[in-house]
Design a protein that fits this description.
single chain; 4 helices; 171 residues; mainly alpha
Amino acid sequence: MSSHRLFRFPKPQWMSSPNTRTAGVYVAGALFSLGFFFFIDASTYSHSNRNGSTVHIKFVDWIPGICSALGMLVINSIEKTRLSADSYSYSGSGVAWKARLVLFFGFALMAGGLAGSVAVLVLKYVVNDYPFPTLYFGIANVIANGLIMLSSVVLWVSQNMEDDYTYNLAL
């Protein structure tokens, strides 16, 4: 067992497979699309004739989802190697702390999106004591932001998996 490992247990062999990496990307895409499906479903239902209430999804309900999607884009644009980069391996100085700062802003956007969706659920739907078909609009917003956050984590982990099938061409 190598001495530079953090945990005592070895990494499973299936994690080094290129198929695992591809499956992780597909699972992340499925989670992302499922999250937006919940929110689009609630949005279209709120404006349909089947909605029995006068409450509709407005732009305020969309803001948390926009924040979560932007956070996902920011987080997945950072490579894992940039987080531990020194000033000699890339052009410029301080690449690692700049990457960490951008990664922090991405996670802050996603956490703000999830917290905003919970705040919209509580302040717009729970406090006003709406019945379930209307309460679903807020629940779908929280589910959508949670799935977007989960898909971002799955995509970042699966894209930054180190495998033996890639070649690093460095001079």
